[in-house]
């Protein structure tokens, strides 16, 4: 996954969708609900230069499940998009699924949202 795609995802989540989001870990005092993302790359790119990436967004709150579900719905309804990045590379983002995840802490709630990202390298 390129840093350009990571920046694109960050901008979509934080600026456009106004999701409290950070890549890999939350650095500041957490808001009531917040999300962190990570990725897992698939095999090497296909002949057409496409690489499929699983992008996982974990949401956390000590508040109500409803706050996580509202953000999940916002992501699900607005995340699917395609773009040509500044480098000329293409990116496509698709919603996969979501599920609540037990934390072992009765107060801490967690939801996992799975996205599929397809990166198309420029020049192939």
List keywords for this structure.
single chain, 124 residues, alpha+beta, STM4215-like, six-stranded mixed sheet, 6 strands, 23% helix
Biggest pleated-sheet summary? 6 strands, mixed
Structural class: alpha+beta
The topology string of helices and strands comes to HEEEHEEE
The backbone outline, from C-alpha atoms, is: elongated
- Report the span from N to C terminus: 16 Å
Number of separate domains: 1
Beta-strand level of the residues, as a percent range? Answer: 35-45%
Our count of helices gives 2
The gyration radius over C-alpha positions equals 15 Å
Instruction: Point out poorly predicted stretches.
Output: none
**CATH fold name, please?**
STM4215-like
Mean of residue pLDDT? 93
Second rung of CATH, namely the architecture: 2-Layer Sandwich
According to DSSP, the number of beta strands is 6
Placed side by side, the strands forming the largest sheet appear as 1-2-3-6-5-4
Please give the CATH class: Alpha Beta
Helix % is 10-25%
Folded structure, characterized:
By secondary structure, the chain is of the alpha+beta class. It has a single domain, classed as STM4215-like. Helix content is 23%, strand content 42%. A six-stranded mixed β-sheet has the order 1-2-3-6-5-4. The longest helix has 14 residues, at 3-16. The mean pLDDT is 93.
């Amino acid at each position: 996954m390129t840093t350009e795609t990571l920046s694109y995802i960050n901008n979509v989540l934080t600026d456009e969708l106004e999701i409290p989001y950070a890549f890999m870990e939350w650095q500041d005092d957490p808001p009531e609900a917040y999300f962190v993302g990570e990725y897992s790359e698939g095999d090497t790119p296909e002949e057409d230069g496409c690489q499929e990436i699983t992008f996982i967004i974990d949401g956390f709150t000590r508040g109500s499940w409803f706050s996580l579900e509202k953000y999940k719905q916002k992501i699900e309804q607005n995340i699917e998009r395609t773009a040509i990045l500044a480098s000329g590379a293409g990116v496509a983002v698709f919603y996969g699924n979501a599920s609540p995840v037990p934390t072992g802490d009765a107060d801490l709630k967690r939801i996992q949202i799975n996205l599929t990202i397809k990166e198309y390298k420029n020049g192939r």
